[in-house]
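Newbie here. two chains, one complex. Structure please?
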Amino acid sequence: MHVQKTEAVMAEARITASPWSRLTAAPAWAGLSLLVWAVLPYTREGRRFLPLDYAYHAVAMGPGAHWLLAVAALAVLLLYLAGPALGLAPRRRGDLAFVTAGLGALIPAAGLLYAGVPFGWGAMLGILGMVVAAGAALSDGGRVRGDAFVGASILLMLLFVTLFITVPLVMVMRSAVWIDGTFTLVQFARTFASPLFLFVDNPYTEVAEGARVGMLGGIGAVLGLASGVRVSRRRTGLRRAGAVLLWLLGGAIAGWALGIMIWGRGALPSTLLVALIVAPSATMLGFVLALLGQRTQSRAVRGVLGVASVLPFITPPFVIGFSMIFLFGRRGLVTFDILGIPPAMNPIYGIVGVSFAQILGLAPVAYLIIRGSLNSLNPALEEAATTLGSSRWRVFRDITWPLVRPGIAASLLLASIESISDFGTPLVLGGDRNFLATEVFLALTGRYSQPEAAVYGVVLLSLVGLIFIGSRIMLGVKGFTTVTGKPASGAFLRLPKGLEAGLTALALVWFGLIAALYLAIFYGSFVRIWGINNTLTVQHYIDFWQQGWPTVWTTVKLSFYSAVPAMMIGGLIAYLVTRHRFYGRGYLEFGSLLSFATPGTVMGLAYILAFNDGALLMTGTSAIIVLALVFRNMPVAIRASISGLSQIDRSLEEASATLKAGSGITMVKVLAPLLIYPLLAGLIFAFVSAMTAVSQVIFLVGAGNNLATVLLLSWVEQGRLGRAAAMASVLILGLLALILLLLVVSRRVDARNRKKGKPA
Amino acid sequence: MFGFSRKATVLAGAMVLGLAAPVSAQDKGQVNVVCVLAEWCDAMRAPFEAATGYRMEFLNLRSNEALVRIRAESSNPTFDAYFAGTGDPHFVAAREGLTEYHDSPLKSELLPDLVSAVDGAYLPIYANPIAFAVNPQVLEQAGAPMPASWRDLANPAYKGLMGMADPNSSGTAYVVIATLVQLFGEEEAFDLLAAMHQNMASYTRSGSGALGPVGQGELGIGVIFMSSIVREIQNGFPIEIVLPEEGTGYEISGVSLVKNGPNPEGGRAFIDYVLSKEAQDLGEPTGNPQPKANMNATLPEGAPEMSKVNIIDYDFVTYGDPDLQSRLIGRWTSEIFPVPR
């Protein structure tokens, strides 16, 4: 309160000083809006993105809501410039300006949406300017703790998250129930009844699947009853009966669901079954590797783990799938040529192959998460326990395990969501099985049905939501733990010799497998036809250079365009949610979580639905791809910045504020230099994820802006595996080089900082 | 003086521009094409641009995706022409009013049979029969005979050796079903499909999805459009083509003019160019060895003359009907697909 009062007093003092000094942020931005409105065309026609066509200038368009923008901007200018003459208290004036500017943004925007006319430069910049002015006025009115920069940033970020995350997802839900202009659940009924979605009682099999599912449900109920009775021993009467009933129900549902996953067919049970296999397996593998990585003395093992944990991030999603076909396919090098498994007996296409590929891809992610929580453990605890005579097992059970549990839970959560959202692997290895994430794509592109795709999208979203809620209730996960952690000093207990040897062997086998898969890609890019004609050739690279390089270059450019705003918006949101309290803070966090957890195909569908016509028409332009990537990858930047910010003491910012720097200046001059490494890491990861993204952009690519991964997928489908392998090799090596560069730079920066005695 | 420091303002401006910067440039002289056969389009670009003065951009999509894209954009199309791919989506697009018929002056150069078969919905560019891609080595190892007819595909000797597309995701598989229904009547066709189902290793997502596995020796027989098989043989894979002796169905791939496209004149110019002998002869070098619609076009090496292939009298109008199509696919999905094997 005190700070604001002085600010207000200072603002008043400035206003009385000279007329020019009355031009604070709010009126300045309102003025800019007015200028933009006057100079630039307000709307556009068709898909040409933001042309300068003056036939659509606001004046030429005649009367309409767009004039309100100018009127509101003038009103805000007047409110401030007329200054003391109006006799308004500064805070009153701030409130008044906020309402005026807010209406000046909202009404013209609503007018555009209602008329369905695509926005032009004038409308876009004009409305954004009014939003900034409203935000600045918000802080003038003392409604936000912070200066104009903070107020404006809050409003802008709320607007962006709404426009590019919430609205598109709402459009998916709307499209599922709003068909041909009426509200209907027909599409839900039709999809749920389709054997592609769920199919339990198959009349063509000897087995009565329905009965078996029922039986498993019964078994679950009995088990639930038994454990309910056991667990609720300490309760009495009604409370005990309630608890037992809950256990019974839970057991029945769990048994029934498991039965459907085992005997049912269709996208829903297949997806759930794979997630149920993959999440625990990947987490388990990640956990033992993390334990090994933390406690082994061998530098080689650590190095191997470090390299292997980066690979999944730089690999386009389905590449592992198609290299698995090379090695473990029906005619694969290992399965057929070495082990001699008859092609018809090879289970690679289906649950087995998809699960295997996903475990390989997700184990490193689990490793990084669990490694982070292992690293935040204080070794002194273990030392103390050992000194007091605890056995190794007891130390693990009573100390290490409880402290790692949040990491394990986070890893389970992330792995199950990633498995459910995975689009590339089932596409390549799914075989006869349907999967939800691919069904979104196939419904739209194979069966031409937008409502059906939307229904699958809603199902996927609900599943992800349920997993979140479930993990919150059962495991107490409050979100994703950060991957980074501060290493504590001291020495951890070493693993027992036998265990260490076993784990090392496991890690080496795992790494050998990964290495073989990547080598297969490189090798495949240099032979004429894999397995048929093994003459070495560079023809695939020549083909790639001629037909793929322009697309890769476009992808690099678009990814870079997306990474910069992703980092800036991510950094800004991180700053706002960690350093300020305001209405909508929870919404910002939720929005970024939503964009992170939403399966990519659903996001892609959402963008097609939201930006295909009307005022927000943007499909067919590169801008829509960039926007999709910005908001998809922004959460990574947010996480990186939040963990960086939490290590910076607020007194630095307070000092800066005392020296009369605004929060904008403080952010740029004080925080950004200290955050340079997290920001850089956020930038590079946003870039890398943009380069390897496929599911969220596959619907959005257009003439002249095809993306590398989409082209790669179509090559794989056309059977041009050599060329695809060449492109995959170039992408993987290029991105690997980039990551290594980041590591080297960060080491340098760390070393330099240490020399200067600054905190890293 | 703005309350914001100049740097903050620049930062905000950069952010806004960062969102707006990647602007797609299109001017009046550009023709946008949805193109199912990317390499052919790539080869046509330069000569088309030189001959007509338009600039050409194309997007490579699969047949069905192309239709979905054009449909999604119908209120505001970005494309002018829709080139190649299976015939059905062209039919559907014409029926839904997404495309309009362009009465090209080059129509007189096209094979009259093909033009009349697609009945004014679009213009034919080539015909492509359904065939079996057979890997003789695989069959030999399995002790199975070479197939010669559709009915041969019911032979249990092929168990686990056959591949075909899933009609729920591919137009090719629907052409197979429609062909069998026209050849044998619906009931007998579904009996045969059920027997074929027993031999399938798996159903693929894209129409030619079984071709790669056949070439790699994962499968022995794939039911696929012939042109892709010819191309794969030219690429050096050990595959042979078998045309079923009962006769086979085919598709007539074509080119359509998108209704209300941004550059309709350019779209028409593109279609006229595509139908010319010059453009049609670019098909083969880019891996599209089908017999072309233009009578003057050179017959690609290895491609059969349409007169020598036993072609059924495929009823495009009846079997292109979406209701019949979804009924047949629905029947397949509920009666054949779930049967265990």
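Moderator note: DSSP finds 14 helices and ten strands in chain B. Strands of chain B lie at 30-35, 55-60, 81-83, 99-100, 123-134, 162-165, 200-204, 221-225, 240-242, 250-258. Thread marked as resolved.
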